[in-house]
Design goal:
CATH architecture of the largest domain: 2-Layer Sandwich
Strand order of the largest sheet: 3-2-1-4-5
Number of strands: 5
Order of helices and strands: HHHHHEEEHEHEHHHH
Structural class: alpha/beta
Strand content: 5-15%
Oligomer: single chain
Radius of gyration: 24 Å
Distance between the termini: 30 Å
Largest sheet: 5 strands, mixed
């Protein structure tokens, strides 16, 4: 008889003489344990909906790997070495596979929760900016919309009116209307906003857009660790995942006291460990 069956009999939940009830209880417990070990899905989640069902590694290890690679400026082999120091032996190609497979899933789960809460706030002040990124030696542009965190990231080959229009439409569709949109002097912004009919919400001035320009710094540090990007879709995927993870762990430590920061950091880590659970 399993441990759970013995505990249930000892505390009186199951009558000692009811052997049939004990057998059914133990059988169900064994099935739950076997399913958790083989497929790593929690109770209440169907096997078809579980993203970890084809992996024998614990979801906690997978979340740790994705967190280390996306959040910190580490290379694939640096993550491999740090995990080996913790007693986790895996190849750097496994790190690549896991962040490509689970990074967008985690980012989508974070974004879904945050967007549903933030759409209640209507008086947003967006800061929009673009920065150039090299992909296989060619110049591409990474557009960002920032409020107190990164709202949207979008990669294009050009920074003309058409690219700005696609970016603004995507941001407005997901996050709703903004009361003010701060931009730089790029001519594509007023042309696109005139097309959308919200040109009167535009603001432009010296130092007004520093928040958007400073939001590129964490991505630039992470980009140097990646050395280079070969495909446009790879940059789009990583920029979106990196923005969501950075938003999730952004506790605004420069604005709060130490105790509040520790509470926010613990809450963010606890929520990260429960993603896709």
């Amino acid at each position: 008889m399993g441990l759970h069956g013995k505990e249930a009999m000892d505390d009186g939940r199951i009558d000692r003489g009811d052997a049939g009830a004990v057998g059914i209880f133990v059988e169900r417990a064994v099935k739950r344990m076997a399913g958790a070990v083989a497929g790593w899905w929690p109770e209440g989640m169907s096997q078809a909906a579980n993203p970890f069902r084809y992996f024998h590694t614990s979801p906690e290890v997978i979340r740790l790997v994705v967190l280390m690679y996306v959040r910190f400026p580490l290379s694939l082999r640096s993550v491999e070495d740090l995990l080996f120091e913790r007693g986790i032996d895996l190849c750097h190609e496994t790190v690549r596979l896991w962040w490509n497979r689970f990074g967008p899933l985690f980012a989508a789960d974070i974004r879904r929760q945050r967007v549903s809460r933030m759409r209640e706030f209507r008086h947003w002040r967006w800061h929009v900016d673009e920065v150039h990124v090299r992909i296989s030696g060619e110049i591409h542009y990474l557009w960002r919309a920032v409020d107190h965190e990164v709202l949207e990231s979008y990669v294009t080959k050009k920074r003309d009116k058409s690219a700005a229009l696609r970016f603004l439409k995507k941001a407005l569709k997901r996050h709703g209307k903004a009361a003010v949109i701060v931009t730089d002097e790029l001519k594509s912004y007023p042309a696109a906003m005139r097309k959308l009919g919200n040109l009167e919400h535009r603001e432009m001035g010296r130092w007004l857009n520093n928040r958007a320009e400073n939001s590129h710094l964490p991505f630039r540090r992470r980009e140097r660790a990646m050395l280079r990007v070969r495909q446009m879709k790879s940059l789009q995927k990583f920029a979106s995942v990196h923005a969501s993870v950075s938003n999730h762990f952004n506790s605004e430590r420069h604005l709060v006291d130490r105790q509040t920061y520790r509470y926010r950091r613990s809450a963010a880590l606890a929520e990260w460990r429960s993603l896709m659970a």
